[in-house]
Design goal:
alpha/beta; six-stranded mixed sheet; 10 strands
Length: 379
């Protein structure tokens, strides 16, 4: 296997939260390529340009900034430009023509990460659906930008444009994928009905991507799911049984699923909606917040982003409990500061690394389920 590095220019907003997240996405894409490609490609950010507004009509970025980037590309021989915002096909086309290097936007970057990290059939279908929804608004615009792509050649093609054929093919693919996802949903519904008959309660782990959900899942269930500091390590739902306490071997089902991220487009949330709905139908939801973050503003914005998704999916707030994770080495006063800022009374503070707070977490889970009059069966 050969090694090569893709030298990229990152264009992002100047505020530290968005900038840090953009860099994390680029790093995650690089790590993804390293694991999966036959030729190893690592992204190296050689320059970061920031701009307050990334919604200018011609390039997304302003014309002056675009010229500045063009000059830097020429001098540095950069390979690619990544813009941390949604761009139209025309904006990408204009910026590529100006700089003579490929340009990808935030949504394309996230889809690339999703594509190479999906392992289950359903996750792959969900990402295919998101890909089509990303592509459809761009089909007609791309046709206008590509010379000679308008009228379909050959018999029966008179008056029919290639863009119409492409659009129809995408709609056909979308219908096929939706049918497959509906089949998967029906199977999950049957499983849920069987679970209801057994009376086994379900506890879901939700939260921002890379907040420590999967690490706790592995600790509690003796699983070995991949964990990483990179974003979107988990893309599919995994459910395992968990004994809450040894006294009478009470068992619940513990579910780990995809993490959230800020500014995730609605069509991506919609593509994963059936999987998320399964998690949100749980009897208890543990919402993870990484309290090892240095900037409390970052913690606040991640917390808000999680609730945006939960509210959009109409989750019952009464069954959501906030977990402050990755607490090892964090002073008690810092934990109090975070809890006060997020207006969380008596939060559960844990460290999956040291085991701190795990007994208290299990006790809380059992007490909540008992209050709901949900019997916890023995194994």
């Amino acid at each position: 296997m050969s090694n090569s590095t893709i030298r990229v220019i990152l264009v992002a907003y100047p505020d530290s939260f968005r900038l840090d997240e953009a860099k994390s996405l680029v790093e995650s894409a690089a790590q993804t390529n390293t694991r999966t490609a036959s030729t190893i490609h690592g992204y190296q950010i050689i320059k970061t340009f920031t701009q307050k507004y990334l919604n200018h009509s011609k390039y997304g970025i302003g014309s002056g900034k675009a010229e500045e980037i063009k000059e830097f590309v020429r001098e540095s021989k950069s390979d690619k430009i990544i813009v941390d915002e949604h761009l139209t096909s025309r904006q990408i086309h204009n910026l590529e023509n100006l700089t003579h290097v490929p340009v990808i936007d935030r949504e394309r970057l996230i889809l690339d990460i999703f594509n190479s990290r999906a392992t289950t059939t359903e996750a792959k279908l969900q990402i295919e659906l998101a890909e089509i929804k990303y592509e459809m608004p761009r089909v007609r615009e791309n046709a206008k930008l590509t010379p000679g792509s308008r009228e379909r050649p050959g018999k029966g093609g008179m008056g029919e444009f290639s863009v119409d054929v492409k659009f129809r093919d995408l709609k056909r693919q979308m219908s096929f994928i939706k049918e497959k996802l509906e089949d998967a949903k029906r199977k999950r519904h049957l499983y849920q009905q069987q679970r209801v008959k057994t009376g086994m309660p379900v506890v879901s782990l939700l939260g921002y991507t890379s907040s420590g959900k999967t690490t706790l899942f592995n600790l509690l269930t003796n699983e070995n799911k991949e964990t990483s500091s990179s974003l979107f390590t988990t893309l599919s739902t995994t459910t395992r049984s968990l004994r809450l306490y040894d006294r009478n071997d009470a068992v619940v089902l513990l579910t780990d699923t995809i993490g959230f991220i800020s500014r995730l487009p609605a069509y991506m949330i919609d593509a994963f909606k059936s999987t998320l709905e399964e998690s949100l139908a749980a009897d208890l939801i543990l919402l993870f917040i990484d309290c090892s973050e240095e900037e409390i503003e970052h913690i606040r914005r991640k917390y808000s982003s999680c609730w945006d998704v939960l509210d959009e999916l109409k989750v019952d707030r009464s069954k959501v409990f906030v977990i402050l994770s990755k607490s090892d080495g964090i002073p008690a006063e810092r934990i109090d500061e975070i809890a006060n800022d997020l207006q969380i009374s008596d939060p559960i503070v844990i460290s999956s690394k040291t085991g701190y707070g795990i007994h208290k977490l299990k006790k809380m889970m059992a007490n909540h389920l008992i209050r709901l009059a949900i019997s916890i069966p023995n194994s």
